[in-house]
Specification:
Blueprint: H1 2-20, E1 27-28, H2 30-39, E2 43-49, H3 54-63, H4 67-76, E3 77-83, E4 90-93, E5 96-99, H5 100-106, E6 114-118, E7 124-129, H6 134-146
Parallel strand pairs: 1-3, 2-3
Antiparallel strand pairs: 2-6, 4-5, 6-7
Length: about 150
């Protein structure tokens, strides 16, 4: 009986450990990306979301956990999560102070989820609004990168 209980405990531990080791997108703050892109230029993907947005949560659950999405985003972008309703988290960008909320407004984001793409000089290129399945999300990002030289 003790062996069975020990085996079950070990299997539960291994199962939990395997989830803890799961890769994820390397999310950065806006401030970190300003520094990173200055040192090593790269395109920027900004996930503009709200806490009440069901489709935003579905992106987090389904699309942003997909191994192909994780690999593609981490290899090609600096990724930022920006809460469009957060007034507290403030940062400086191009000599002005912004909150996450004021930055989302400055980027003219009006629907959620919305993905703002910036080039390495931190200029807005485009927005990709709405929920996207993993393959569609990668396809949209690839198409964008193929048509944009930075």
């Amino acid at each position: 009986m003790k062996k069975v209980v020990g085996l079950i405990v070990m299997l539960v531990f291994i199962h939990q450990f395997s989830f803890a080791q799961k890769e994820s997108i390397n999310w950065h703050s806006f401030e970190e990306v300003i520094e990173k892109t200055a040192a090593n230029p790269k395109m920027i993907l900004i996930d503009v979301y709200t806490d009440w947005c069901g489709w935003c949560k579905k992106m987090d659950r389904n699309t942003f956990t997909d191994p192909k999405v994780i690999e593609y985003v981490n290899n090609n972008f600096y990724a930022v999560k920006l809460n469009a309703e957060n007034r507290k988290n403030k940062f400086k960008f191009r000599g002005k102070e912004y909150s996450e909320q004021s930055m989302a407004r400055n980027m003219r984001v009006r629907s959620f989820p919305n993905f703002v793409i910036m080039d390495a000089s931190m200029e807005n290129i485009t927005q990709l609004p709405g929920y996207r399945e993993p393959d569609n999300f990668i396809s949209s990002l690839k198409s964008l990168l193929e048509n944009f030289e930075y």
